[in-house]
């Protein structure tokens, strides 16, 4: 028997019994009447990502249906659609006027019952519009539904030209209808040449349609501009940003990821509206951005840092991808008093002259003793110069000093570990990618981190584990630690030695080991019985097999056991 547990479902674990009952309509009526609308609404909000359960809820009674439908239909295109899910367009078609339905029928989109009216006005519940997923799903639906010209055979496929024409026709009818009838649009995701939205917007000669974006809270703009038409695509992003900045100053989350080729530069006239969109917001809390502007142009760089500084009082999360100008960024960060998280993804390679310039400016920053206030520093960056990465991260750590509570680093160096030792004695959460050299250097430092609660160690290069090294690791773990997540390929004996020499009373243990069996589980059971603190065991790996007897014993002692993938019970 195979059992699969998904960690994403842990959050709704407490509602498991409710889910079982809601799937049985007849036995739920008595249960349903005991819950107030307020309680139901809170439960349904909690289950917003569990579409199956929400769909079951709408079948209970009218009251449940009226509360669950708005949540179920709030963001239907958030994820890619497959199979029968694309039939959602039949429901949206039923909401169109008779005239628009007839237009579709005249163009070969076969409608089963044009006069049929829906039970709800589904478009008004739309809170999120994800352009690319909408466009792909619509094209698939048209390909499945639209008849070949002069054909009555449903098996006849549309030619590419017919598919494009009929998809654009449906887009012009359904897209604007969804957007204009949405009463509370909060999320907009425009990505990867989603020309469908631009086509919709171009249908309107005035700015009326942009009023629907006045309540947006989250905006995502994403594209990889490597193609020959990259200039026109940059222009479309600029046009959209320019319009949005006129009608919305209340965005709280902005994500702009425009990846451009090495030899391409987005012109200032296209950069400015996009960066102005950031600048003009009143209360921006989350900003994720890729360095798409021309860093050799002082005007473009000034626009970005001016926009960033304008949000210094509200910004709490800043994520930067392919970033280069650290020496210009850090002085601005000293003004961001409420910034809690700073994240870097993939540095852009610099030439030697640029790095030397940065080092010079970094030295001036260090001597000025300016402070930044972040609590979390996350670095997924990598490059060919580990010393430069160490320099950048080290400067940030020194400027943040005791404010830092969480560090997440890829490609850690021994020099950086020494900096952590000197400046991060109060650290509580630590995520490190590590190898033999850095592990050996890290263990003495770990032993004196007396406030650490969460430790994640990822084996970057295969570590040569010995029993002596396992003992050292165990004895280095501070008593304060309650969450341990490691990817080391331990044997059952090594795991037993780790537990026998560890004085910490872990509450959560996460292991990533292929081929785990009862010997591993028995070692964990012995630890859980000895300390009576372990309440969660999560695991990942291939070819994992447990006997029912030992697994049942583990479940009695450890309340929560979850896996990332399937495992076998025999």
Descriptive overview:
The chain is built from 22 helices and 18 strands. It has 570 residues and is of the alpha/beta class. Among the domains are: 15-72, no CATH class; 78-216, no CATH class. The radius of gyration is 28 Å and the shape is globular. Helix 15 runs parallel beside helix 16. A 15-stranded parallel sheet has the order 2-3-4-5-6-7-8-9-10-11-12-13-14-15-17. Strands 1-18-16 form a 3-stranded mixed sheet.
Key descriptive features of the protein:
570 residues, alpha/beta, 15-stranded parallel β-sheet, 3-stranded mixed β-sheet, 22 helices, 18 strands, 44% helix, globular, disordered N terminus, F-box domain-containing protein, LRR_dom_sf
Counting H and I runs of at least 4 residues, what is the number of helices? Answer: 22
The class by helix and strand makeup works out as: alpha/beta
The percent range for helix content is 40-55%
Q: Show unreliable segments.
A: 1-28
**Order of the strands making up the biggest sheet:** 2-3-4-5-6-7-8-9-10-11-12-13-14-15-17
Question: From the alpha-carbon coordinates, what is the Rg to the nearest angstrom?
Answer: 28 Å
> Average pLDDT value?
83
Largest sheet: 15 strands, parallel
Q: Percent of residues in beta strands? A: 5-15%
Kindly report how far apart the N and C termini lie: 7 Å
Task: Count the E strands.
Answer: 18
Shape designation: globular
Compact summary:
The relative contact order is 0.05. Helix content is 44%, strand content 15%.
Helix and strand topology:
Layout: E1 2-3, H1 16-22, H2 25-33, H3 37-46, H4 51-57, H5 62-72, H6 88-94, H7 98-106, E2 128-130, H8 131-145, H9 160-181, E3 187-191, H10 195-202, E4 218-225, H11 230-247, E5 253-260, H12 268-279, E6 286-290, H13 298-310, E7 317-321, H14 326-333, E8 341-345, H15 352-368, E9 376-379, H16 386-400, E10 406-409, H17 414-423, E11 429-434, H18 436-446, E12 454-459, H19 467-476, E13 483-486, H20 492-501, E14 508-512, H21 518-531, E15 536-540, E16 545-546, H22 548-557, E17 560-563, E18 567-569
Parallel strand pairs: 2-3, 3-4, 4-5, 5-6, 6-7, 7-8, 8-9, 9-10, 10-11, 11-12, 12-13, 13-14, 14-15, 15-17, 16-18
Antiparallel strand pairs: 1-18
InterPro entries: LRR_dom_sf (IPR032675)
Organism: Rhizophagus irregularis
Protein name: F-box domain-containing protein
